[in-house]
Amino acid sequence: MMERNKFHPRPSQELCPFEVVEWEKLKTKWNCTDPADYHCLPDQYNIPGQICVKPHWVLKNYCPIYNTAAAKIDLLPCDLQYGACSDKDYRSNEVFRYSACLNKTEIYKESSTLQPEPPILPLPLMAGIVTVVVVLCLLLLAACIIHSRRRRRRGKKTEYNHQLQPLLDQSNIPVGLKKVMDDLERGVFSSSKFYEHAIGVLDIHGCVSLIGPPGSGKTLTAVQLAIRKYRGGQGGMSRLIVYHTVKELTETEPPDGAYIIVDDWLDQYMHYPIMLEEDKKQLDQFYDEYIKIKKVHIIFTAQEDRWKMFNHDFSKCALFVNDSLLTINSKEFKNTELKSIIHNNLSVKETHMETKLQNKVEEIMLELKWEEEFSFPLIVNVICVNRRLAGSLGLIIKDGFTSTLKQFFDNWSRDTDMDERRSFCILVFAAFLGGKVNLSNFKSQMTGQVYDRLCSEYACEKYVEKSSSKGQEIFEDEYINSKGKKSDEQPIISDGTEDISKQNSKQVNKTETSLEEAASVETLLQKNQRLRDCLFKVRGHEEDPVFVFQHNALQRCLLQYIIISKKEKFFIENASIEVLWKNCWIEEGIGRKFCAMISDKVIASPVGLVIIPTKALTLLAERIYSETKGFIHPQWSRHVFMNHKTFQETWKKVVKKNSREELS
């Protein structure tokens, strides 16, 4: 039987049809499982053929071909001398509308050379040969069936393991990106029209920029694009390299065939805008040396509001021509794409959910609203990871995700259980350190003091190394399984009928745990369910385990919560210098004095940054000065805060005051 998902050349002297009636006839005869998968198009040798394959988006003035060596659809420029080309993007299964894509195909020629007839073997010998062939075929068929069943049992996760194995071993993958890798490995990624379009752009231009709001899936899509290219037959030679700045990109020579992601690369210019002019020259040079000749492929990701601020500065850079700029926005996703995102996230949960309940939850989750800090894909992912938020689906739909998340922090910080409050301190500690934490941070003389102050602020004793499992008892009464009984297994997502306040009322009023019974930091990081739902343990750091936030947006939301609930003084005194420099913004706005043509423009408060009110500028200046003891980071003079008139004046006063005190 003919395999429909393999490319089969058309019979001799027959081209692919140019009009819809003939196309539909062939599609009916070919009988793909999904009729939309039917394609009749040329291969890389211009030989027309038929195949069942998922349709891809084709850019205007391009034609699809099926690359049999890579087993995928590729794109080639359309030549008007052969007929009509498209003037807009289209699906590859509609190629019959554009005759120039099909009119230049070579006719597949079957060999007509007469071969001498082979000698006729004696009947007994022929029967023996036939028997051996039949037995071998049966053995081969049995082996294929066994192999197929084993693959089905391993399922989707095994497939992603195979795809990611050459990438996960790369030592230059940032710690913060490991959560994205884990999501891909578990099969969270959901294909979309946007993704298929990005494939075509990357193939043609060698570069693509993915622009969108926080949590829209930019980084996840970028890594998936690189994985797809690896699967395209690079033979293990391709490497995934991830950077965050242009300096990182240009200071080392990339290996041939590399796929480079420059993630959230515009963030650095928020605080060091003076670096723009230097980096523009470097990017132009990088394009000429590597991208123009397709030596490497590069994918940029940028937050939408950052791109709006800086797009003018890069308008003449060849890396950012209009065709290579793609905006991803879940507001524009079709209902089927939203359902796919929900289904994929629910399917990879450790807890198995009855089909009827899962269908109900999927329908409820479609009502989730997009928010400035949290796009739809991120909200779904966080809910599916965090059990308490999962049990508060109804409240999230009613009050919004950000509001519910702040209530979640409120209840956690005021929990009557000592280990729970200490766990919240650990989460705040991780946020203050820049989004990641390891055990050595608690033992360090400098950072350890910060953790002690947090424990004091939230009225919980300092941790001790003697561990206890009692800190987990609170969770037993907090979730109910679908039959209304206490579950011994992992809790499931509710259908939206519970909220955090109701969950909180179920907690056992335990007396504060004594110092001897307090769980150690390591135990809490490994076992406390709330912490596990918020912090992701990075693999490969067994000696000193590293934990990072499930998503940067969670860290940003927590920082904003802290400065509001504990005020500016507490925030400024305990957050690391890195957080103060990279995650904060001054209330009044900052004039852009680094570019003459727009020197009077004021940057609005960027999405996701913590706003420091002008009344707290003296505190901010004193903290920065005291941390560095007068020896400021070489880049400090170039920091955007130094363009703020009020801060500049405050800084001079602080320096002058401390200089006098040091002299005296």
From TrEMBL:
Disordered: annotated span: 485-512
Transmembrane segments: 125-146
Stored InterPro entries: nSTAND3, P-loop_NTPase
Domain Novel STAND NTPase, chain residue ranges per copy: 191-346
Composition-biased stretches (Polar residues): 502-512
Keywords from the named record: Membrane, Transmembrane, Transmembrane helix
SUPFAM superfamilies per UniProt: P-loop containing nucleoside triphosphate hydrolases
Protein name listed in UniProt: Uncharacterized protein LOC111121511 isoform X1
Organism listed in the record: Crassostrea virginica (Eastern oyster)
Gene that encodes the chain: LOC111121511
